Amino acid sequence: MDTQLTGKKIILGVSAGIAAYKACTLCRLLVKAGADVYVVMTKDALNFVGKATFEALSGHKVSVEIFEDQKDISHISLSTGADLMMIAPATANTIAKITAGMADNMLTAVTLAVTCPVVVAPAMNSNMYQNIATQENIATLKRRGIYVITPADGPLACGISGPGRMKEPEELFSDIVSILSNRIGYTREQSDLLPPPVKPLELTRTRLLPKAYGAGLKVLITAGPTEEPIDPVRFISNCSSGKMGYALAEAALAYGAEVILVSGPVTLTCSKDITLIKVKSASQMLQAVEDYVKEVDIVIGCAAVADYRVENYSPVKIKKEEGNDTITLKLVKNPDILATVGLLENNRPFTVGFAAETNNTEENAKSKLVRKNLDLIVLNDVSKKDIGFNSDDNEVTIFDKDGKIAHLEKQPKHVIAQSVMELIFKYQKNTK
Ligand code: C5P
After folding, report:
1. Residues labelled as active-site residues
2. Mutate to test the pocket of ligand 1, among 226, 305, 352 (most ligand atoms within 8 A of CB)
3. Ligand 1 atom with minimal separation from the 338 CA
4. Which residues are bridge partners to 263 per DSSP?
5. What's the CA-to-centroid distance between 304 and ligand 1, angstroms?
6. Which atom, in ligand 1's list, is nearest to the CA of 377?
7. For the purposes of burial, counting CB atoms within 10 Å of the CB of 219, is it exposed (0-12), middle (13-18) or buried (19 or more)?
8. 8 Å CB contact between 376 and 301
9. CB-based contact 268:196 (threshold 8 Å)
10. In sequence order, what are the residues at sequence separation of 6 or more whose Cβ sits closer than 8 angstroms to the Cβ of residue 353?
């Protein structure tokens, strides 16, 4: 099976919790998806699942002790070249040890030695989980860039019900896929778990996008600059290549949505399955958006709309005048296309804006979100030379009305677009 996990070296750490049985299913899912899985267990975990089970599932020897077989496999050779390590279940004891940087068994030694992303899936009794010691350890791990998957609330092996139940193997599997594709959490709860920005992972550039996200949805995206004519040969415009908007349109299409792309003048092309409406001025862009707004579920304003247009367009070319070194153009404000959508009283689609800012970036983005009544706003800091306008890369932070929900490290715009679209689809579904 060819997935983004094909050929990935994944270390599965199993510590001593009843949820170790779920790690068997996780191991099987990973192997089925093409990953090369190495299982490392603590001695106590053997009370729950035997080595033979994981050896049969993974096709590799299971390691428990550091010195058991030095010739064959050591914590260093195991950790070398790993793409991801997941500890599932992670007991309070193992979490405490890795927080302290201990290396007293194979699992903790490998955790210390790997340079790949580490994901921890706690599983324990609710009191142990909620104990300040465990909570502080978890906070420390997150601060260090380790992903911690919040356990679910539910019946526990100890007979009580509460937080501490390890996430299901299928969920852990999809978290691994997300992390390896450098996608991030899409709900506030998940994004709270995000580690602080870490260096972008070596990305899988192409991945299969689940069509279910966008299926049945119609998305309208504005892209590119607008041109506000002064006379037949001159215009006022904005810096915008349209790359981000076009990348969003392609990503939305790949997620199975129907896409209408209202584009200002750019040199880009798009898939034939996207309905492309070419416009020049802000007024034309507004008209196109108004024509479609009633039939779409999501509107994303990615266009760099000129804020002003010339009040009196000259139908003939304006000539230089002898003896006159200045010329005055009176500009009038253009309509705010996105605000028109965001402030609709009836049939308002899920509305997303972009904010290209150079200073007070967060404040400006948040105030635009409120002023235009947006559901989400995507901020990019255009004072940074290597991202934003004309660049192939971008780095964005996304906010909803309650604050920051995600930060996407610098990556090619088409990869950013996929993550942004996924997040938009998830949020849009939640608001229905
Ligand atoms: O106010 P500002 O131009 O910074 O807001 C940026 C967001 O608003 C972008 O999503 C942009 O596409 C949209 N916008 C618009 N019409 C305007 C100005 C901005 O749709 N006239």
Report:
1. 158
2. 305
3. 20
4. 223, 278
5. 6
6. 10
7. buried
8. no
9. no
10. 300, 301, 338, 342, 368, 369, 372, 374, 376, 377, 378
User: Can you state the angle between helices 20-32 and 169-180, rounded to 10 degrees?
Assistant: 50
Is residue 34 a contact partner of residue 5, using CB atoms and an 8 Å limit? Answer: yes
Percent of the chain scoring above 70 in pLDDT: 91
Amino acid found at 389? F
User: Residue 353 C-alpha to ligand 1 middle, in angstroms?
Assistant: 7
CA 66, CA 33: separation in Å to the nearest integer? 29
d(CA 197, CA 393): 17
Ligand 1 atom nearest to CA at 307: 21
pLDDT recorded at residue 319 = 92
Cβ < 6 A, ligand 1 pocket = 222, 282, 301-303, 305, 334, 336-338, 353-355, 368
Cβ 96 vs Cβ 134: under 8 Å: yes
In whole numbers, what is the pLDDT of the chain averaged over residues?
88
pLDDT tens-digit map of 340-375: 999 999 999 999 999 999 899 999 999 999 999 999
* 3 state DSSP class of 346: coil
Residues 6 or more apart whose CB falls under 8 angstroms from that of 136 comprise none
DSSP string of 75-100, one letter each residue: HHHHHTT-SEEEEEEE-HHHHHHHHH
Question: CA-to-CA distance for 159 and 235, rounded, in angstroms?
Answer: 72
Q: What is the whole-number distance in angstroms between the Cα of residue 300 and the centre of ligand 1?
A: 10
Between CA 409 and CA 417 the distance in angstroms is: 12
Sign of the dihedral defined by the CA atoms of residues 377, 382, 385, 389, in that order? positive
Q: So what's the pLDDT on residue 125?
A: 92
Q: Where are the alpha helices (DSSP H) in 80-218?
A: 92-100, 106-113, 126-130, 132-143, 169-180, 188-191
386 three-class SS? coil
Q: Whose CA is nearest to atom 9 of ligand 1?
A: 354
What's the pLDDT tens digit per position in 137-186?
998 888 777 889 999 888 887 777 788 999 999 999 998 988 887 554 33
Q: Is 249 in contact with 266 (CB distance < 8 Å)?
A: no
Number of neighbours of residue 192 by Cβ within 10 angstroms: 12
Task: Give residue 301 CA to ligand 1 midpoint distance, Å.
Answer: 7
Q: Which atom of ligand 1 is nearest to the CA of 364?
A: 4
